[in-house]
Amino acid sequence: MGENNEILTVKNLSKHFGGVKALDKLSMSVDTNDIHGIIGPNGAGKTTFFNVVTGILEPTNGEIFFKNTKIDNLKADEIARLGFSRTFQKGSIVEDMNVLDNVMSGMYLYNNTDPIKDFFFKHFSISNREKEIREKALESLKFVGLEGYSERWADELVWVERQLLQLARALVFDPKLIMLDEPASGMGDKETDQVKKVINKINSRDITVLVISHDVSMVMDLCDKITAINFGNKLSEGKPKDVKNDPKVLEAYLGE
Ligand SMILES: Nc1ncnc2c1ncn2[C@@H]1O[C@H](COP(=O)(O)OP(=O)(O)O)[C@@H](O)[C@H]1O
Ligand SMILES: [Mg+2]
What tens digit of pLDDT does each residue of 188-236 get? Predict the structure, then answer.
């Protein structure tokens, strides 16, 4: 159902929590290979959008397509396997694990779940896979600038390093679409620039990026296109500078 160049399309997507319409008939699409931003004031529905698209929450209504595949009835792991990856706003990493193991946990998706193959090939595949997974994880850590961090405990990392670790974990199974929830929130300019550089690097590997930011300035020079949402619906969409200057967007932020 998606148009030719669209990697993700949602139509009339709604998610209600009791009386709260976190998403209210939202329709939008993301073009392949873009860096696409989603902005909006606190409580606009940004994180809920990610949770519904990635199958963590079931939509109340509406349709979601990955290219031409309808995915709104799929489970989170099935969606991930199609090539979706993401990070979490609260920096969810496993504190009492080292950095490398945190990144490797992103590969669990690849584990063989066919019981027969599992039975016959388990030892063989585990030893082979582990090596492959480890190499991929080390490569991802290097890619995000965390080379040499493998053996560090995750709880020793500062905030920017945690976000970079999340990026490394999200990259480890070669996603087609990577969804980043506030990857630079609470960071100073220097750390924000560091994160932006990695996002650009990810995009130059032909990975489509969908990035949430409450802070409009963070996505201005990063994104090809921005969708502004509020009350779970689209407020404005287009080139970053047009969206930023849209009176409807300015008003939504003033109302915070
Ligand atoms: N699990 C939940 N249960 C109930 N209400 C929720 C839940 N998640 C989000 N909400 C509500 O949905 C709205 C959108 O929240 P959210 O998607 O987190 O916004 P944003 O990420 O844009 O700040 C808010 O009113 C929030 O309180
Ligand atoms: Mg949020």
Answer: 999 999 999 999 999 999 999 999 999 899 999 999 999 999 999 999 9
pLDDT band per the 50, 70, 90 thresholds, residue 1? very low
In a domain, 190, yes or no: yes
Task: State the CATH number of the domain containing residue 111.
Answer: 3.40.50.300
Atom of ligand 1 nearest to the CA of 229: 22
Ligand 2 ion: Cβ-proximal residues, 5 Å cutoff:
46-47, 89
Asked whether residue 57 is assigned to any structural domain, the reply reads yes
Helix ranges (H only) for the chain are 46-53, 76-81, 99-104, 115-143, 159-171, 189-203, 216-220, 240-244, 247-254
Q: How many domains does the chain have?
A: 1
Q: Which residues are near ligand 1 (CB < 6 Å)?
A: 17, 20, 22, 40, 42-48
Closest listed residue to residue 8, CA positions, set 31, 39, 38: 31
Domain-located, residue 174: yes
Q: Is residue 214 part of a domain?
A: yes
Express each pLDDT in 37-81 by its tens digit: 999 999 999 999 999 999 989 999 999 999 999 999 998 888 988
- Domain of residue 206 covers 6-254
